[in-house]
Design brief:
The protein has 68 residues and is an alpha+beta fold. It has one domain (7-62). The protein contains 1 helix and 3 strands; from the N terminus they run E-E-E-H. The protein has one helix at 34-62, and strands at residues 7-10, 15-18, 27-31. The chain has a 3-stranded antiparallel β-sheet, covered by helices on one side. A hairpin with a 4-residue loop joins strand 1 (7-10) and strand 2. It is rod-shaped, with a radius of gyration of 18 Å. The mean pLDDT is 91.
Length: 68
């Protein structure tokens, strides 16, 4: 079997790694390059920030009385 040389991002260490070295629940990927793995983590963090803000706004709006 060929060695997996694709890149992964370890969410625990915050580092990219070549090949699946860490447990699957700790990594994202695979990616074609080291840079893609790093970018994927940045994209994830940006989206998570956006989702948290959307949830906060939705929860604020949920408690407001509705006009009929």
């Amino acid at each position: 079997m060929a060695k997996d040389t694709r890149w992964y991002f370890n969410m625990v260490t915050g580092e990219p790694e070549q090949g699946p070295k860490s447990p699957i629940e700790q990594r994202m990927g695979p990616y074609k390059s080291r840079e893609d793995a790093i970018d994927a983590w940045k994209i994830f963090q940006d989206r998570e920030t956006l989702w948290k803000e959307q949830d906060r706004r939705w929860n604020l709006d949920w408690d407001r009385p509705r006009k009929v």
